[in-house]
Write a structure and sequence with these properties.
The chain is mainly β. The protein has no helices and 4 strands. 0% of the residues lie in helices and 51% in strands.
Length: 51
């Protein structure tokens, strides 16, 4: 898997990096925001894509 397509998701509340995923950066220009479960917060929070 190419490292160029890898993205990290960071919790907006505790700023922990919990998830890794991949996306096609040619088709999707903006940053992704998903509601995911954070183990440190112990609840579903908004996770934003980081660099």
């Amino acid at each position: 898997m190419s490292q160029d397509n890898m993205i990290k998701f960071e919790c907006t509340e505790c700023h922990a990096i919990n998830y890794h995923s991949r996306k096609n950066k040619k088709l999707i220009k903006d940053r992704l925001e998903l509601k995911k479960h954070c183990n440190k917060c112990a609840k579903h929070t908004l996770h934003k894509e980081t660099k």
